[in-house]
Amino acid sequence: MPNPDFAYVQRILTSRVYDVVKETPLQPAPLLSSRLGIPIFFKREDLLPIFSFKLRGAYNRMAHLSPAEKERGVITASAGNHAQGVAYSGQQLGVRTLIVMPVTTPEIKVAACRRRNAEVVLYGDSYSDAEAHAYRLQRELGLTFIHPYDDPLVIAGQGTIGLEISQQMRAERYRVFVPVGGGGLIAGIAIFLKSINPNIEIIAVEPDDSDAMYQSMRAGYRVTLDQVGIFVDGVAVRRVGEHTFAIVQRYVDDFVRVTTDEVCAAIKDVFEDTRAIMEPAGALAVAGLKRYVAERGAADLPAVALTCGANMNFDRLRHVAERAEIGEQREALFAVTIPERPGSFKQFCRVIGPHNITEFNYRYAPRPDANVFVGVQLTHANQRHELAERMRNAGYTVLDLTNDELAIIHLRHMVGGRSPEATDERLFSFEFPERPGALLQFLESLDASWNISLFHYRNHGSAHGRVLAGIQVPDADLDRFYASLARLGYPYKEQSDNPAYHLFLK
Predict the structure, then answer these.
(1) What range defines the domain where residue 316 resides?
(2) Do 320 and 333 lie in a common domain?
(3) Staple 77 to which of 131, 151, 332, 445, CB 3.0 to 4.6 Å?
């Protein structure tokens, strides 16, 4: 019986990818190499015509369509780079392309597909909604579905990256850090590199809130996540592929999971070495490489990190810049209680010493003490704990908020908003789909007797907006209230016990 892995290597070596792409460079990263103490290289997949590796798999699959399939056309579901890969391939091959995208897809991505003559259907608030609708249309219209990752020819197309790395890296042993969503990219790279040199280590990198492959590997079967994070949207997959999972089980050596802040810091790292701006998924492998070195050390081997996509919405850069310093552990955030009297701020700054204060939020209130929100610039991570101890030794009550998501996203902008009159207030964080009518739908789901006593929202350029709301709900109404939230269907989390909320807003 033929070895299925050999069949994959054959598909990679005979791929049609090079009809439309040129080999991408393996670029040294001197600044990051110097910081981490090992030779680091970026595999620049962001330089492809659609600014993403996804073109490789989409084109290879579509180049193998039968004449009858080409005549009928293809369909796919995607909120981003795979859609652009299918649209580009359809334009090059003269094949009709129908792409179903969530209503929440940024206009820049919809427009990019339409410019390449794709027919775009907007449906649902999530990828899952769009995918289900795409399969319905596929059956009705007789089109061929181009899967974004779980297809042998798509996997082979992505595997040509492994072929190129094998020819570009001169070392006998090295580590390759690969971002993981559904698994098509890492499956193709791993099966090729491991087949020709088992000494090469393949490291999978996932966000800690979208880790379907890691969870599946732990369980031994494909796990379906209840929900996925929205920041690293290029890998936000609830369930990995059947083909890809089997390959990852055989060939991937290790896993690293990273935070949103670490991804933001990695976007900055890539920019400093290349002057290119990655989308979050495009810098994910770099974030994983940094975490791996910090936790396990890696001085023995050079490393390759895939910079696999640069389709960044410009308005997301504000969020990235805000979070990058925390991800690099160059900024600490604290809530500090100081005396409410003249000169207290000056005395507090003396305790801080030579550190640069990056943020200071405060509002006067007629009480003995004031709670202030302060950001402080650091030169190394240990200074955060040293600084907190110094403030405590000076007599201040200190709460470290550096890793408090609620404080970072919302409360830092709302310090001083106490409202003692807001009885029975419950605090919730919500994710709203970024589409017209989402807020109205939320408001209409609430009983008129439940007053909204606090509301904060900021657009970060992603498919979902983050909202903080305080709602006055008496204990007797709680069952009815939670039932209304369940009917609404927006993801939410109660934050009423958050310590920063009690300090600044309660």
Answers:
(1) 4-53+152-324
(2) no
(3) 131
Say if residue 35 is in the same domain as residue 178: yes
Q: Which residues contact 479 (CB under 8 A, 6 or more apart)?
A: none
Q: Which of 145, 164, 182 is the last residue of a domain?
A: 145
CA–CA separation, 205 and 266 (whole Å): 13
CATH number of domain containing 341: 3.30.70.260
Residue-wise pLDDT for 324-364, tens only, equals: 877 777 888 999 998 877 667 778 878 887 777 777 777 65
Are 164 and 253 found together in one domain? yes
Look at the chain and report how many structural domains it folds into.
4
Domain presence at residue 409: no
CA 107 to chain centre: 19
Model confidence at 292, in pLDDT bands (50, 70, 90)?
A: very high
Residue spans of beta strands (DSSP E) within 348-491: 357-361, 369-377, 397-400, 425-433, 451-458, 464-472
Question: Alpha helix locations (H) across 169-279?
Answer: 184-196, 212-219, 242-251, 260-274
Query: Which stretches within 116-241 are classed as H helix?
Result: 127-141, 152-168, 184-196, 212-219
**Residue 497 tokens, joined:** 């016990």
Find, among 311, 306, 19, 15, the residue nearest to 168 by Cα: 306
CATH number of the domain to which 423 belongs: 3.40.1020.10
CA distance 43 to 27: 6
Q: Output the CA–CA distances (angstroms, integers) from residue 7 to 1, 200, 248, in the order listed.
A: 11, 20, 16
> Rounded CA gap, 242 and 253, in Å?
19
Return d(Cα 179, Cα 202) in angstroms, integer: 11
Which pairing describes strands 254-258 and 331-339: parallel, antiparallel, or unpaired?
unpaired
Q: What pLDDT does residue 422 have?
A: 75
Contact 161, 188 (CB under 8 A): yes
